[in-house]
Amino acid sequence: MQNLNKDMYFASAFYFLAFMFLVVFTFNSLSSILTPIAIAFFIWFLINAFANEIKKIPFINKKVLDFIATPLSLIIIIYSMIKIGTFITSSMMELSSVVSQLDSRINIVIDKISTLTSIDLKEPLSKFFQEFNVGTLLNRIFMAFSSILSNMMQIFLYILFLLIDQRFFNLKLNALFPKKENKDKAQNILSTISQSIRTYILITTVVSLVTGVLTFVICQYFGLQGSILWGFVAFILNFIPTIGTIIAVLIPTVFAFIQLDNLGDILSIFMALVIIQFVIGNIIYPKLMGNRLNISQFVVILSLVVWGAMWGTIGMFLAIPIMMILLIILSQFESTKKLAILISENGDIVRNK
After folding, report:
1. Mean pLDDT computed over every residue of the chain
2. Could you tell me which of 309, 306, 334 has the C-alpha nearest to residue 320?
3. Which residues contact 196 (CB under 8 A, 6 or more apart)?
4. What is the spatial distance between Cα 224 and Cα 256, in angstroms, rounded to a whole number?
5. Which of 303, 302, 326 is nearest to 315 (CA)?
6. What pTM was computed for the model?
7. pLDDT digits (tens, 9 = 90+) for 317-332
8. How wide is the angle at C-alpha 328 spanned by C-alphas 341 and 172, nearest 5°?
């Protein structure tokens, strides 16, 4: 009997690992098909989040707000994406001359740091700058958004049909779950997922926008070339926890070393950007989010690596919303609650119900 239980345990583990391998392989192989769909869902959640905020506007007839909220949100977001696409194109042309100077001025940066520290850091810093290639990193970010823009029509159609279909979600739930108990449970899961993702996207977008504006102000004040772009990069990278924050500070600092001669200004830019990221990321953002982002920091980093490996830069942007959905779903069923506890930050999954 004991041997039978062991065999069943190993069989379950084997099937689980095989299933996970199949899922990862499928997501990786179908990335070109699945990423536009995932982006469409992301934007759809954002549209609904904005629509809900528009519906709260006082002194306007509620029926009027209900009628215009979703179309107005759709127009605002699509218009913003078109403007972002135009901005990225112009910024790439503007910054191409600066990026081309990286290799020629890298030794000047190393000499500045060596003089400051009175230590010969030429060899280790040369290796660091070879590994941390700012030009390549920027190109990856731009390529990710170029990919989104090239699939814009396809993504727009997905969003449009999602917005049309959402009117019939309740009817579909009634048909799928005739029993009231099952229907209420399914409705609760979908409502929790929708509310959590919308809140996460809305708060993260607003906080990222503030971070981007402050980064632009700091770079503009010190006369750093491409200050609008650095603000935009900070805004975008703020959607990638931890890793994005570090990169958003390092990229303008490296370019400050290349462009500016005053070491005091370079250090001031670095310290100002660190303070902005620390205050917003560790004080303001957690207060706004409260307990909504109940995901282990290790799982956050792991999901960034896994989704980044499967879907590239776009996968890193979508990693946290995907993990939030997974955590909420796993927390609803007795058979998967242990996995939800492992994914959660402190083991408290009651809030995700």
Report:
1. 76
2. 306
3. 292, 324, 328, 352
4. 7
5. 303
6. 0.69
7. 788 888 877 887 777 7
8. 150
